[in-house]
């Protein structure tokens, strides 16, 4: 991946010497000098490992109950459609209400839902509609939680450190993506899915404790009605062309890369002839690639001057790797390619998340993040149904191949966006945009 970036003739680099790369890496961890942020992210790390265990175990439960790729797509849809439905109010609520209280309530409810799912599986009374209902309820809670959680990081880090704090948070997310699914595969294989859900329930204790322990300074709360606040956020996006580009790139990653994971149980069992342990290992390999990207590539990529060209290039590389993954017939090669494919989404999403927080006025950060989450999660109901139906009709490999081709075509189209390939967003900590298209 680094070699691919290095061959881009039109990307201007500040300096690719070892000193510069080391400096970029070390500077990424500056936010951890902040005790409050360090405490909060520690709690997040524990909870996210449990969350990824539950995501992996839940998909496996659905697969074993139904043997249907369409059902896998449907449970993914049930868990993500609340982001689309609640997006118009979630960000405004996070701007107007106490974010700490929102997070404590949402994390507590999520813990209870994990306990319920563990109980249903443990007593062998779980039915498909139970999983659907719990997935949608958890999705509703998460839709209210995520805008507040993302803005809460900014409250602790301060504007000058937001982009670096987002990268550190991204590292934690990717570590959890490595450990969570891998542990889930082992736990489900040896102890059953109920144990994985129970471990997730316990993990919420850490994050709730960390939220209560830290101090955070929330900016001025947005006045006015909830609906008006959301319209104001939409108007801001319409007035800023580069933010529109960031949203489009985020949507493409969501629709055509993340949806692949929904049919991995089928691909692991029917194409690679493995079981839940291979499924968990595939998920872990993707997380390992993402972790490497966040630790090594993202700090370096954020120093590139032509950010737009870098983002579009990564999208095209992702498309090629997804297509290559679809033709793999052995588990070793599949793991290697899925590892490389896993490197691409965090480069795009972590960069976009940080830029959006810098470009947004302070009083509108949560609303802009809510719109971002509507795109990054709200499109997943459609993408999950798409990939599930495609896999049901033509098989998982063909569904994955179609997604890869779509990414390649989308990257070619994005190259034609006026000004995107020459866009230089400026140094981290720059003043937020307030008006006009860019």
Write a brief caption for the model:
This protein has 438 residues and is mostly helical. The protein has 18 helices and no strands. It has helices at 2-6, 18-28, 35-66, 69-96, 99-122, 128-157, 162-191, 193-213, 226-238, 241-256, 264-271, 276-301, 307-326, 331-341, 344-359, 365-376, 380-394, 396-414.
The coarse silhouette is: globular
Please give the largest β-sheet. none
Beta-strand portion reads under 5%
Give the total of beta strands.
0
Order of helices and strands: HHHHHHHHHHHHHHHHHH
Structural class: mainly alpha
Return the average pLDDT rounded to an integer.
Answer: 80
Tally the helices: what do you get? 18
Oligomerization state of this entry?
Answer: single chain
Estimated helix fraction: over 70%
Evaluate the radius of gyration: 21 Å
Ends: how far apart? Answer: 29 Å
Which runs of at least 5 residues are low in confidence (pLDDT < 50)?
1-18, 222-228, 427-438
Outline the structure in words.
- The protein is mainly alpha-helical and 438 residues long.
- The protein has 18 helices and no strands.
- 77% of the residues lie in helices and 0% in strands.
- α3 (35-66) packs antiparallel against α6, α4 (69-96) crosses α9 and α13 packs antiparallel against α14.
- The longest helix is centred in the first third of the chain and has 32 residues, at 35-66.
- The protein is globular.
